[in-house]
């Protein structure tokens, strides 16, 4: 009887090639060695709103004609041919930075002053606009895995060579145009390029360059580095080369010195035994106990973070079984930055052919072309091809969950011609997804990004971390805008952002005990001091009255020569430049807004009751924290009491006489029954819970609406179990452990069999 083959478990060398060790034997030893090459399982990470870097091209034109109403006249001759000409003109414009949030405390402070105080409203509107922006791949890559996965396929190598050639051609063109360029600069650039090309063609690039090129092609430069890159490093460091880690433990457990033989059951068990009290394995084991082994048992309330819980023997055995399948994979992490200004349906399934996002992917000037379209569907297709993989995982943050829902809905569609990738989805993990929107959007639209901190107790103001976090938050707020005048031209021109308006099926928890009869009402109007709620509105009512004083785009009076008043749109809050993009120059402001608004309503309608629930492939987590207060509802508070007999319709029809005063509370002045009333937005309530942006009501909506069982949801949130702030949730260990658990579970249950 012949001896079975010796199975070699390879690791990846610095060039990404599989290697394995084996002992030399005599020629009489005919036993064969069999190398088992690990499969790739790409992980797709989608950031939240404002988490993706954007670039823009200046494609603004001044309207040459005016209609009787003051709007630009329609250009009836502007057809497809003229749009093509417009695009040719747009391609000549220089690519500039549009949105790239600061990394680090000092840069955050600088952004708060530079962008917050000195960046004009018109500049924000011009540079941060959905029609003229695309994902920027040039962001900094500041965090590198200790053992980065290098795919190093011929397909990727060819892309890198082509990218290098295009960068070289672009630089040569710039040097040749420059009157100050000397011939030696041109010659030096040519020599540097030839040397670089030879190294890459021979497969001998510098290790640091190889790693950065690899990570850039995987999209690491498309997102805010401080928010996401540490998390992606965590994933790669803990998921890859697991086989080698297990063999390292086996050296002391069973005398297997060379690490070349096939891993045995005892090797996996010994690895788990040794690692069960160290992170992240202790955290994973605790989650196996809680969410799988003890799922159907009554769970005690956690008194400390889940990652600090002791594990059972059953959980240790289950993890050992999981690892037998997980070690067969390498997990290259892709970061899928997307244009968060555009419709989330487009970001998930494919951008319009008349968008800069689509057209940027087709140009060949060396800036964006080789990366291809940045919508999730295209990114997944390229990743599967690059990795020669049949399966993938998706991890999302905030708005990224909405993009993923759009992608999954189309992937599972029965319509002919749709991409059928549902069977390739190994698992999805949603974190802090605004499943039914967030009232915070309304506050930021009507009052900017200032005045966000929750009400605090006196002693809390002496906490150093409070001030450090406040400075970092100020940096983000400064880039987008502290006031409504700064933010509204961006948000109202962004279907993606507007889709975060509380959805028609948003149902607040009302932790504060507000007595309102309508379960879906979340916008209140209260008398003096805000204690007496007189009227309430739900999203449907808000949408029906979007042009009223409390709406998304309110009206204001315009004085005419005859002394009469006529209501008209407040164009300062929508189009402060008075210009049009190449793609919109034949439309009025009202038509542009209505088009954006239609996309909002359609997206919410199509996805209100859709989650990817096939084969229990989706895990979700959200924060339900008392320490991170969140707008569960929004309240307008009057400076004095309303008349007792005031009707709701009278309040709706009140005339806005002074819009937001650019203050932090969105103060408005309106005329009601011939008298002036001043109203402002109230601060967060001490009783409203969430993560600072997404309220508990929206985070848990997939549960309360019956799509997921509460026992299957990874809830972190109160001060005992790891509450966290929305934007930095993936910088918290508890959230990272949730994601790692979800990845391991998905691969163990649904990964391809050998």
Strand content: 5-15%
Secondary structure category: alpha/beta
| Order of strands, widest sheet | 12-6-13-14-20-25
Q: How many strand elements?
A: 25
* Amino- and carboxy-terminal Cα gap: 25 Å
Instruction: Provide the low-confidence segments as ranges.
Output: 12-17, 66-79, 254-261, 560-567
List the helices and strands and how they pair.
Layout: E1 6-8, E2 11-12, E3 18-19, E4 33-35, E5 39-40, E6 43-46, E7 54-56, E8 60-61, H1 80-91, E9 96-99, H2 105-118, H3 121-127, E10 133-135, H4 154-177, H5 183-201, H6 207-217, H7 225-239, H8 242-253, H9 265-275, H10 281-293, H11 313-326, E11 329-330, E12 333-335, H12 344-349, H13 356-360, H14 376-387, E13 392-397, H15 400-411, E14 425-431, H16 439-447, H17 464-480, H18 484-491, H19 495-498, E15 523-526, E16 533-537, H20 539-544, E17 555-559, E18 565-569, E19 580-581, H21 589-607, E20 618-623, E21 634-638, H22 648-652, E22 655-658, E23 668-672, E24 675-681, H23 696-699, H24 701-704, E25 714-716, H25 733-750
Parallel strand pairs: 1-4, 5-11, 6-12, 6-13, 13-14, 14-20, 15-21, 20-25
Antiparallel strand pairs: 2-3, 7-9, 7-10, 8-19, 15-16, 17-18, 21-24, 22-23, 23-24
Helix pairs in contact: 2-17, 3-18, 4-5, 8-9, 9-11, 10-11, 10-25, 11-25, 16-18
Architecture overview:
Helix content is 37%, strand content 13%. By secondary structure, it is of the alpha/beta class. Among the domains are: 6-37 and 241-330, no CATH class; 439-726, no CATH class. The strands form eight sheets. The protein has a six-stranded parallel sheet, with helices on both faces. Strands 16-15-21-24-23-22 form a six-stranded mixed sheet. The chain has a three-stranded antiparallel sheet with strand order 9-7-10.
């Amino acid at each position: 009887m012949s001896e079975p083959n010796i199975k070699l478990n390879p690791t990846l060398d610095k060039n990404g090639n599989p290697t394995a060790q084996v002992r030399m034997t005599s020629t009489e030893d005919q036993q064969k060695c069999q190398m088992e090459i690990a499969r790739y399982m790409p992980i797709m990470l989608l950031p939240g709103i404002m988490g993706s870097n954007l670039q823009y091209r200046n494609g603004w034109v001044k309207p040459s004609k005016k209609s009787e109403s003051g709007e630009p006249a329609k250009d009836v001759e502007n057809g497809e041919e003229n749009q093509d000409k417009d695009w040719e003109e747009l391609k000549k414009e220089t690519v500039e930075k549009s949105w790239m949030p600061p990394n680090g405390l000092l840069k955050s402070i600088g952004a708060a002053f530079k962008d917050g105080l000195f960046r004009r409203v018109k500049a924000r509107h011009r540079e941060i606009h959905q029609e003229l922006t695309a994902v920027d791949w040039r962001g900094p890559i500041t965090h590198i895995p200790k053992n980065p996965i290098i795919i190093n396929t011929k397909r990727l190598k060819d892309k890198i060579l082509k990218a290098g050639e295009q960068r070289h051609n672009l630089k040569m063109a710039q040097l040749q145009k420059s009157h100050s360029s000397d011939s030696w600069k041109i010659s030096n650039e040519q020599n540097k390029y030839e040397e670089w090309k030879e190294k890459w063609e021979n497969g001998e690039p510098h290790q640091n360059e190889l790693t950065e090129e690899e990570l850039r092609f995987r999209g690491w430069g498309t997102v805010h580095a401080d928010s996401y890159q540490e998390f992606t490093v965590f994933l790669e460091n803990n998921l890859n080369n697991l086989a080698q880690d297990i063999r390292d433990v086996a050296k002391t457990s069973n005398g297997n010195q060379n690490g070349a033989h096939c891993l045995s059951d005892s090797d996996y068990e010994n690895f788990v035994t040794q690692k069960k009290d160290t992170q992240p394995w202790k955290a994973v084991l605790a989650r196996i106990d809680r969410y799988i082994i003890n799922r159907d048992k009554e769970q005690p309330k956690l008194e400390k973070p889940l990652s600090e819980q002791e594990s059972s023997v059953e959980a240790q055995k289950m993890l050992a079984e999981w690892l037998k399948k997980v070690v067969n994979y390498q997990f290259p992490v892709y970061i899928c930055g997307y244009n968060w200004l555009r419709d989330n349906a487009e970001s998930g399934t494919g951008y319009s052919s008349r968008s800069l996002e689509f057209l940027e992917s087709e140009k060949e000037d060396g800036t964006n072309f080789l990366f291809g379209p940045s919508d999730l569907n295209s990114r997944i297709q390229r990743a599967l091809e690059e990795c020669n993989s049949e399966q993938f995982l998706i991890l999302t943050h905030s708005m990224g969950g909405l993009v993923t829902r759009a992608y999954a809905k189309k992937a599972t569609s029965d319509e002919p011609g749709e991409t059928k990738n549902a069977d390739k989805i190994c698992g999805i993990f949603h974190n802090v997804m605004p499943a039914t929107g967030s009232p915070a959007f309304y506050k930021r639209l009507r009052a900017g990004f200032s005045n966000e901190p929750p009400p605090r107790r006196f002693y809390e103001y002496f906490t150093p971390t409070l001030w450090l976090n406040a400075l970092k938050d100020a940096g983000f707020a400064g880039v987008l805008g502290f006031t409504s005048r700064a933010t509204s031209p961006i948000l109202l021109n962004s279907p993606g952002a507007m889709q975060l308006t509380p959805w028609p099926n948003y149902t607040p928890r009302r932790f504060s005990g507000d007595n309102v009869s309508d379960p879906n009402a979340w916008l209140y109007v209260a008398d003096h001091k805000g204690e007496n709620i007189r009227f309430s509105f739900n999203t449907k009512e808000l949408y029906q009255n979007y042009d009223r004083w409390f709406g998304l785009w309110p009206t204001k009076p315009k004085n005419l020569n005859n002394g009469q008043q006529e209501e008209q749109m407040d164009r300062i809050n929508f189009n402060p430049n008075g210009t049009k993009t190449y793609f919109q120059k034949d439309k009025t402001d009202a038509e542009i807004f209505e088009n954006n608004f239609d996309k909002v309503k359609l997206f919410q309608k199509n996805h209100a009751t859709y989650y990817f629930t096939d084969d229990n492939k989706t895990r979700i987590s959200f924060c339900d924290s008392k320490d991170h207060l969140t707008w569960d509802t929004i309240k307008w508070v009057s400076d004095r009491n309303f008349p007792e007999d005031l009707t709701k319709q009278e309040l709706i029809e009140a005339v806005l006489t002074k819009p937001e005063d650019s203050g932090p509370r969105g103060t408005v002045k309106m005329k009601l029954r011939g008298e002036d009333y001043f109203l402002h937005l109230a601060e967060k309530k001490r009783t409203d819970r969430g993560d600072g942006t997404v309220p508990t009501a929206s985070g848990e909506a997939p549960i309360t609406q019956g799509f997921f069982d509460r026992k299957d949801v990874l809830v972190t949130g109160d001060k005992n179990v790891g509450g966290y702030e929305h934007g930095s949730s993936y910088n918290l260990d508890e959230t990272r452990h949730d994601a790692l658990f979800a990845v391991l579970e998905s691969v163990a249950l649904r990964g391809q069999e050998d």
